[in-house]
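Exercise 7. Given the encoded structure of a 193-residue chain, write a plausible sequence.
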């Protein structure tokens, strides 16, 4: 019986470690609207070696139309959190603070309330260079995408309060056969609630 109990506890802990849950409804420290630009590629196209797949454009106008529901035919409609968007057509970046040990958590979502955000955790230096990673929970099939971002935070002088955040995000999902690299920057910091 004891071995069974140990097995169950270890299995549950392993499952939680392998499948971290998204942060939900956590009051953010700082919230920014994001601007995105880059290219996406479908990796699951059956083609011969040497075939150069087309690259799709990603920018604020395209993402905005999808999130607002103006474009319902785009491939990514089934993989973005349209259910919780706030109608603005924007993605939001939440900066949840820098730990004393240099740890950092940032979250990304489609609304300014913090509902159904994706958490990325990592490290940040005292002058703002950061590296964060996490799993993106696809709305229909679960956390099947890996996300890694690196960049810089400009802090208000003498504090760890972010003024601007910019960087590059890499996303890859074998589950949907999609990969992209995007440049991002914060556009506006929203008032703290």
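Solution.
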């Amino acid at each position: 019986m004891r071995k069974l109990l140990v097995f169950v506890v270890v299995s549950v802990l392993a499952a939680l470690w392998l499948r971290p849950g998204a942060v939900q409804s956590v009051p953010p420290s700082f919230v920014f609207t994001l601007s995105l630009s880059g290219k996406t590629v479908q990796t699951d196209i059956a083609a011969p070696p040497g075939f150069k797949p087309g690259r799709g454009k990603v920018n604020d106008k395209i993402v905005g139309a999808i999130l607002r529901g103006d474009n319902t035919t785009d491939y990514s409609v089934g993989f973005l959190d349209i259910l919780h968007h706030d109608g603005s057509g924007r993605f939001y970046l939440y900066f949840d603070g820098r730990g004393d040990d240099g740890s950092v958590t940032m979250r990304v979502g489609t609304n300014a309330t913090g509902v159904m955000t994706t958490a990325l955790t990592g490290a940040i230096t005292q002058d703002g260079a950061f590296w964060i990673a996490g799993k993106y929970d696809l709305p229909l099939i679960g956390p099947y995408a890996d996300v890694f971002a690196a960049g810089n935070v400009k802090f208000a002088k003498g504090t760890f309060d972010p003024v601007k955040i910019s960087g590059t995000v890499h996303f890859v999902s074998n589950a949907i056969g999609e990969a992209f690299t995007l440049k991002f920057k914060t556009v506006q910091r929203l008032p703290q609630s």
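Remark. The domain at 22-189 is CATH 2.40.128 (Lipocalin). Students should compare their own answers with the one above.
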